[in-house]
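Let us work through a complete example step by step.
Step 1: write down the sequence.
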Amino acid sequence: MIKKFKTFEEARRDLWVSNPDQEYYDRLRAFFDFTEKLIDFRTGYKPGIYKFKTIQEADKDRREKRMAVLLGKKEK
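Step 2: predict the structure and record it as tokens.
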């Protein structure tokens, strides 16, 4: 379905959901679950200070942590 709007304000108002149903909440929960995975993927680190002898060692650690998050493994 294609909608045409005369102004950006009109288009913005069309995105509002005034009467949400269960499907809306399910989609919203799925969206937040997805964004949470993205944030976890991006970080993958526990809080704290990490020391590395070389940049290559730090890059290797970052790659390993990202792969662990993707594969669903917990950090040691």
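Step 3: interpret the result. The first helix runs from residue 8 to 14.
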